[in-house]
Amino acid sequence: MFHAVKKALLGAGVAAALAGMSAAADAKTELTMYYPVAVGGPLTKIVDGMVADFEKANPDIDVNAIYAGNYNDARIKALAALKSGQPAQLSVMFSIDIYELIEQDAIVAFDDIVKTDEEKAWLDSFYPTLMQNGRTAGKTWGIPFQRSTIVMYYNKDMFRAAGLDPEKAPATWDDLVAAAGKLTKADGSQWGLMIPSTGYPYWMFGALAMQNDQVLMNGAGNETYFDAPATVGALRFWKDLGSKHHVMPEGTIEWGTLRKNFLEGKTAIMWHSTGNLTAVKKGATFDFGVAMLPANKRRGTPTGGGNFYIFKKTTPAERTAAMKLIRFMTSPERAAQWSMATGYMGVSPAAYETAALKDYVKTFPYAAVARDQLKYATAELSTFQTGRVRKALDDAIQAALTGAKTPEAALKEAQATAERFLKPYM
Amino acid sequence: MTRDAMRHVYGWLLLTPAAILLVAFTHYPTVATVLDSLYSKGSAIRPSRFVGLGQYAQLADDPIFWKVLANNAWFALGTIPASVALAIAMALLVNRALPGRALVRMAYFTPTILPMIAVANIWLFFYTPDIGLIDQVLSVFGLPGHNWLGDTATVLPAIIAMTIWKEAGFFMIFYLAALQNIPPELGEAARLEGASRWTYFRRVLFPLLMPTTLFVLINAVLNSFKLVDHLFVLTKGGPDNASNLLLYYIFESAFSYFDTNYAATLTVVLLALLAVLALAQFFALDRRIHYW
């Protein structure tokens, strides 16, 4: 028994010494990175492939990319690792986690890492709209990676069957109601429209509010506008789609099963993340179209998705290596490859200038809808105490959609809750 | 050292491994949770400070807390009696000579072996409006579909039904074991005396099963507070907290809102609640139980 222990200890000691020697020999920088996947499809394989390419190009850096579930799980795992003293150096996390991460003192601003003018210019090479959720207090904290907007997927075969022009997607709320009315079958076998209201209800609602020319919060993240008349109007419209116009099922609509609903022909139109584009393209047995969301007072959608963050507990060497990795993953060529593989956006204008993505857009024009919609886009709901504030809005939306409360009452309550949580940040 | 002292040391040494585990994983976390609940939420900018019972006052004012507590009560009331009754019925059925008995037993037990997350993923597609199994069966009979998980009135019953399906098989195993320990002479004697099968069950079998029932009841009560895995997949507590349960709310507070201190406060409430329920069951039922 004793001998076995001694042997094991000796073995461990030798291994540690050897590891130490080899580390000293080629001084490899090791990076641990968590990343989330929020939509369907084999996204982990694509990330792993890109990371492998990076390691090949940078033999002195070892990247340990860990798939960490959805956005919530990724944040929990990264912060838990941080607390346990075995932190990651960088992670892809929800773009809207920014205030929470700053308040936890977990991340470092990119302005404090970049040195050369060329690097500073790189910070401005992305679409400005995508930077809105990554910048606050005059600094850049997040670099866009898997970013999306909401787009409208529609079934062209059903449009034809209902006598609608399949090349002309509804461009206004009135058009949408009229078209969805024609597309809804009275026996309930086919709905005109589905907007998901579980999972990320506040996100879909951000689009409706923006179309009604109303943002949900200010840029400092300490004020919300949940009970503004235009916000209430947006929620009333959403509810009316089900309860008044009867073109959408009443109650809440499940985020997770919506794509299947669309692919099985249970709904003619769905609103969903562009991150689903490639999965829909592969799964659709019918002719489908992708369009920008319709306008009421204006067009609008929130951006969404994940940003790269660099953690504070890192050595200068690790920060440099992390910057290298981030620049590699967001370079125009990689962004183009990523966009084609998933449907997420190319994060910089340069990505859409690459030959690969140009050709792809030529054969599949819908790949550019998200980009074209960017000029109408706004930031995703993100405030201090963001989990609680978001939950207040989510609950209000669901309460209104299920008929438990009127849109006015529900949003008034949500605003009061948000104000209570945000008071210390004024 | 005297021989007596040595024996003491020896005794304590034997206890040490168990004591360390118990302290590290039960007592210390409990005490730490109670202490945490007395402090405010902290962050790097705003350090946590002692607020006494402030968190408990906030709790009393929190409408979501009362909502999840009520939901949990309905969830317990909905799942426990039904799954225990079903477990007894299934155990009685498969305890008899039955063609393909092993197969039936396995079928009843299968839901128990499946992980809750897998079960929830299966049921998510059962409950999906229009394309789900339930709505497709309904449509065969010409009935309209229903948005089971999207309606505040049906979401909790839908989750209760799924939990009963999952739990009953597990409890059945305990009842089956208990039934096989009951001497067959009792049944023969009852038949000789002309007792009906119902009387035999009510007057003989059920009282003899009481020790098992106590065990199953305690487990069922614990499970009704412990099982929340399915919420992650099915509803995330929605719509509008209609299916939110206490433990899921604790998770949300700790990991969505990063308010570990509020989560600690909720945990203390959960602990107290479970302790009271377990004690009540022991004291109320123990007297009526015939151990043999």
Describe this structure in words.
The complex is a heterodimer of chains A (426) and B (292). With 426 residues, chain A is α/β, with parallel strands linked by helices. Chain A has helices spanning 2-26, 43-57, 71-83, 98-103, 117-123, 128-131, 156-161, 173-183, 201-211, 229-243, 255-263, 277-283, 316-329, 332-342, 355-363, 369-373, 386-401, 407-422, and strands at 29-35, 61-67, 90-94, 135-136, 139-140, 143-155, 191-194, 267-273, 288-291, 301-310, 377-378. In chain A, the strands form 2 sheets. In chain A, strands 1, 2, 3, 6, 7, 8, 9, 10 and 11 form a 9-stranded mixed sheet that branches. In chain A, strands 4-5 form a two-stranded antiparallel ribbon. In chain A, helix 9 crosses helix 10. Chain A is globular. Chain B is mainly alpha-helical. Helices cover 74% and strands 0% of the residues of chain B. In chain B, helix 7 (155-180) packs across helix 9. Chain B is flat. Chain B starts with a helix and ends in a 6-residue tail after the last helix. At the A-B interface, helix 3, helix 11 and helix 17 of A face helix 11 of B.
Furnish the topology, listing elements before pairings.
The complex is a heterodimer of chains A (426) and B (292).
Chain A: H1 2-26, E1 29-35, H2 43-57, E2 61-67, H3 71-83, E3 90-94, H4 98-103, H5 117-123, H6 128-131, E4 135-136, E5 139-140, E6 143-155, H7 156-161, H8 173-183, E7 191-194, H9 201-211, H10 229-243, H11 255-263, E8 267-273, H12 277-283, E9 288-291, E10 301-310, H13 316-329, H14 332-342, H15 355-363, H16 369-373, E11 377-378, H17 386-401, H18 407-422
Parallel strand pairs in A: 1-2, 1-3, 7-8, 10-11
Antiparallel strand pairs in A: 3-10, 4-5, 6-8, 6-9, 6-10
Helix pairs in contact in A: 2-14, 9-10, 17-18
Chain B: H1 3-36, H2 54-61, H3 63-95, H4 101-113, H5 116-127, H6 133-140, H7 155-180, H8 184-192, H9 197-226, H10 229-234, H11 246-256, H12 260-286
Helix pairs in contact in B: 1-12, 3-7, 3-9, 4-7, 7-9, 9-12, 11-12
